[in-house]
């Protein structure tokens, strides 16, 4: 019972304390609110007073700025008015000057008009005087104006042409003399720098035998061995009274070399019968083919020419066993390559092209017995077929003037070919015989009437005849060419062919005294 009473008392006390706390909090809150309101009111009043003060100060500053701006504006307006006044004064002065200028221009225009009228009148008078003068000149000369002008122009043109002809002739003579001198110097230098020895090849080969008893074994029973040899090689085996030797005769040097090697191997082996002959013939042919390949490669190395097709190397090697009038063609080609290269260097043109074309220029001689046509044309076609340039092919075709040379290198290769073939001892002729043949060629041509000069060139393979144009016309020149060729055929013995060229040239010469 007491516990309950204590609980009730505690509850009552708690309620009273809570009520008292609530009332006290409420009172304190209302007091704080009232204090805050008073503070806010004070702040608002202070702000109003400060705003009014700022407004008053702003009005004062604005009035001052407006006053200053009004003062500045009035000063600028006054200054602008002064400038406008000055401009107006200047314009007035310029207008007055323009009026004066217009008046002066009017006076000048009037003066120009007066002068123009005066000049027109003077020109009319001069024109009338010229017409009258021309009429009087036509009456005196009996010619019109156009006729007189034509005569004067023609006379002037003739004088100019005459002077031009003399100048051109003088320049041509000077250039010809200088060219001849320079060409002789270059040729002599190149020939001296490329001295070469020559040995004329023959059309026979001799195979030595250990004894004359070997001849019977070579002939064989009823001549079967020698017949087999001749049928296989295509070479004549001459077995006669020559002691301890067999002579092989044939114009194809490749076949003759194969036959020589075959017979040498048979003699060394000692067994000679048809089967052994065929075996040795096959070995000899392989050796010769190897020699041909090696000769072509060596020639290219000696000439310092690169990039030659393998087919052309083989054809070059075949030239080792080819002769031209007794001169070895491969050695001749190497010499032409060196000469053409040296001359090209002296003249400052393409030495590599000249040397390459010089080495290949007689390429057609390797197959000219198999293909129809001149060796120059055949060589040009072969060069094109196996990848050589058109410049090289042209030089090959033009080295005997069958095609007109169009490059300096073509002329140099032709000159090198002529120099190499014309060296004493290069061809199968003695120096005396060679000189006599050239003299005979020139003598035959000079004996004809109307011939002015003649020259044997290309180592005696061509003769050029210059005739007098006033005695020999074009038809007579063709007939004279044929007569000279026929007489050369009848009177001279020579290898190959000789080209006869007759040249008829008209010239005009005049001397001023």
Q: What labels describe this entry?
A:
513 residues, mainly alpha, Hypothetical protein af1432, GMP Synthetase, Chain A, domain 3, 3-stranded antiparallel β-sheet, 3-stranded mixed β-sheet, 14 helices, 8 strands, 70% helix
Question: Could you characterize what this model shows?
Answer:
The chain is mainly alpha-helical and 513 residues long. The chain contains 14 helices and 8 strands. The strands form 3 sheets. The protein has a 3-stranded antiparallel beta sheet, covered by helices on one side. Strands 6-7-8 form a 3-stranded mixed beta sheet. Strand 4 (323-324) and strand 5 form a beta hairpin. Helix 4 runs parallel beside helix 6 (274-303), helix 8 (329-347) crosses helix 12 (408-422) and helix 10 runs antiparallel to helix 11.
Tally of separate helices: 14
SSE order, as H and E?
Answer: HHEHHEEHHHEEHHHHHHEEHE
At the third CATH level, what is the topology name of the domain at 204-422? Hypothetical protein af1432
Give the proportion of residues in helices: over 70%
Mean pLDDT: 80
Strand content: 5-15%
- How far do the termini sit from each other? 183 Å
